[in-house]
Specification:
Mean pLDDT: 89
Structural class: mainly alpha
Shape: rod-shaped
Radius of gyration: 29 Å
Strand content: under 5%
Number of helices: 1
Distance between the termini: 80 Å
Helix content: 40-55%
Length: 75
């Protein structure tokens, strides 16, 4: 553009667009952070085939892969 007034108007318009993009990026970052926190609070749903029991002693082993490790305690 040869007209300095039009050129300056375009420069200002692009600066405003850049500022708007910066504000939108910050808002997006905050929304994504809030979404991550909300999703992290959602509990995992048990498989519908999971049997009900009073405690861990009533758990049913469906499959074992490899050799179970022995329990090791540090002294």
């Amino acid at each position: 553009m040869k007209d300095p007034v039009q050129r300056q108007a375009k420069i200002e318009a692009m600066r405003l667009v850049g500022d708007q993009i910066s504000r939108s990026d910050e808002e997006l970052r905050q929304v994504e952070q809030e979404l991550t926190l909300l999703v992290a609070a959602i509990p995992n749903l048990p498989d519908p085939r999971t049997p009900y029991g009073k405690d861990d002693s009533e758990n049913v082993v469906i499959r074992t892969v490899g050799e179970p490790r022995g329990v090791r305690f540090r002294t």
